[in-house]
Design a protein that fits this description.
Number of helices: 10
Strand content: 15-25%
Distance between the termini: 42 Å
Bound molecules: zinc ion
Length: 233
């Protein structure tokens, strides 16, 4: 067994990854809150697979896409109660948040994504001039997000908008923020245990032992406000 887990560029990448404060990287809005955004490109969104089930208190966890992903294992265990943990597509949108001068991600359900994509396409030819109000309305399953063009930008807003001129978002931007949200296996097993899943029957003893030692500190690092999760099939 090696005590070194990564070398050179991989180690550097890992070190940088931990510096991402997810709260600063994702847009999180409360009911009736909004932010002004600039959409840098008409295709600045990606699809990924995530697990989530509100009733199990497991909120939007990216799937590692590995066969031993603990949440995949649970969803396939043949226990009906845990079937809803099956990985489903979710969507990440990159928006330039004008007041913060920073590109952030918004994590959307499929229904929310369809609507946002329709808005982006509707105004696709005008993204160079048009800023949007990105707003949340409603709560729980009635949560809705909308992008509405701002007809006229005033002083400081125009300046903030112009600051993003020429900026682009690449796939790596999405990947890094998604990876930072990927919890480790022990933590997933801990969440499953707390949700009442028989972890001893489905995971090896060493992993379970490690999982039960997991501190909640991990939660702070990986937990993002997911009050808008849609617990639907
Ligand atoms: Zn999975």
């Amino acid at each position: 067994m090696s005590l070194i887990s990564a070398k050179g560029s991989q180690a550097k990448e890992n070190a940088q990854k931990q510096q991402l404060d997810l709260k600063q990287e994702y847009i999180s809005l409360k009911e009736n809150e909004s932010v002004k955004v600039r959409i840098l490109g008409a295709e600045d969104y990606v699809e990924y697979k995530a697990h989530g089930s509100f009733s199990h208190k497991i909120y939007t966890r990216p799937c590692s896409l590995q066969s031993d992903c603990p949440l995949c294992v649970a969803s396939r265990a043949g226990i009906e109660e845990f079937n809803p943990l099956k990985a489903r597509p979710r969507y990440l949108f990159a928006f330039y948040v004008m007041d913060e001068g920073k590109v952030k991600l918004f994590d959307a359900t499929k229904t929310q994504a369809k609507k946002l994509i329709a808005s982006i396409e509707e105004y696709g030819d005008d993204l160079q001039e048009l800023a949007f109000n990105f707003k949340r309305t409603g709560n729980g399953k009635d949560t809705d997000y909308s992008l509405n063009p701002i007809i006229k930008l005033k002083g400081k807003d125009q300046e903030n908008f112009d600051n993003a001129e020429g900026m682009k978002v690449d796939i790596k931007f999405f990947e890094e923020r998604l990876e930072a949200k990927l919890g480790n296996d022990d933590y997933m097993v801990k969440l499953l245990h707390e949700a009442g899943f028989p972890v001893d029957d489905h995971f090896d003893a060493e992993l379970v032992a490690k999982a039960l030692e997991e501190k909640d500190e991990n939660a702070e690092v990986t937990e993002v406000d997911d009050t808008d999760i849609n617990d639907v099939v």
